[in-house]
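User: I'm preparing a small set of examples for a lab meeting where we compare how different chains pack in three dimensions. I only have the primary sequence for this one, and I'd like the structure in token form so I can line it up with the others. Please keep the answer compact; I'll paste it straight into my notes.
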Amino acid sequence: MDPLRSVAGRLFLSYLAVVAVGLLVAGVAIGGLLFKYENDVTRIRLQELAAPFQTAVQTAVRNGQQPRDVIAGLAEQVEAANARLLIVSPGNNPTANNVQRRVLIDSDGTLVNTRLPSTDAAGIGQFIDPDGTAWIFVQQQLRVAALGAGGQGFIVVARPRAVFADVVRELLPSLVIAGLIAAGFALVVAGLLARTITSPLRRLVGGVRAFGSDQTARVPVGGPTEVRELGGAFNEMAGEIERARASEQEFLADISHELRTPLTSIHGFAQAIAEGEARGDGVGRAAEIIQREARRLVRMVEGLLQVAKLEAGVQRLAHEQVAAADLLRGAVAALDVQAREAGVSFDLVAEPLAVIGDPDRLSQLFINVLDNAVKHSPRGATVSVRGTHVDGEVLVRVRDHGSGLPPGAERKLFGRFWRGDNAAAHAGAGLGLAIAQAIAQAHGGSIDARNAPDGGAEFAIHLPAAA
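Assistant: Understood. Below is the structure token output for the 467-residue chain.
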């Protein structure tokens, strides 16, 4: 594997790059500091040299000596100090320090009658000798009549400027050794750092691969915060996948069971007709059973398809303002005959309710929930239906007076094919509430169920209210 394509390799090289850039910046900074330090030290030493030379020149000239003779007399001291003395004129403006001045006397004799460059703000100047030697200088003012121009001029003390490359050359071996030590240390630290960060990732990869063959496998959660979060997120996802697979298997088992019963009946009676075992009135009875079970299969398949389309969001729904109270009254009217046969009545109280959605699907939602309440209410009971506005939503409560919900059934009853303990007493495939929940969710709402305090079950339908 290409090291540059791995996280460890990139971390390793990134750390080395950071160290290299740091060393380079540090080298440049140290070089700049050395350069500045060299200038500062040279300036201070030159100023220390200039003071006694200034005093000696002024004293000797007042005693009648010529400035040139004085400079010649100081030659040994100047040479011992590895310095150079110059006397320069004051220039056009005797009070200005930033103008070029003419050299009157030079202890080396090479700059006489040339112009001396001006000094900077710190009082330091630089000139180049004809032989290419760089000199750095400071100046002190002189007040002697022999100079003319009001007796003003300047004594300049200069020393050869150390070449910066020479300083770097002297420091280069130490810098190289320090850089090699830092690079070696960086290699060790970069390797440890890359290993520390990538080890949890490798364990995470191993856990992911193990999950492919064993869906109960989970990845270890450890390492840096981001890696721990990634491991935790994967474990949560793995748990959801495992639950989805378990739900899928349960669904397949349920649908296989639900389909087997009508298919067995259809197959058995069709075989009886084909083999001539059913004769006379038996043929009509067998055909009736086949037709009934076929309709049951059709309803079951249509219900499954509807739930799947609603959950997948592929079923087109109308988007219009609907009077929910009218839909509730229509649902009660649609179930009136069934309720009368079961000896159950409705008690409907609904405020003017408006929602945005598909009126046909919403009507089906209310019918399914009310139908479930009728089926689970004893003879002589009343199904209570209340519709109100609560916190920007339409809330419809449907309450029966049956035996209530068994423990843990609050979520299960909205699953496909789930039926309570008294399911045998009622025809149906157990898809009504699943379809109702899917419709509610497709409209941005939901349905929840609970046991009422004084008996029976209560379903709460939540739908967004229209503005």
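A couple of notes for your slides: The chain has three domains: 8-166, 225-312, 320-464. Residues 320-464 form a domain with the Heat Shock Protein 90 fold (CATH 3.30.565.10).

User: Perfect, thanks.
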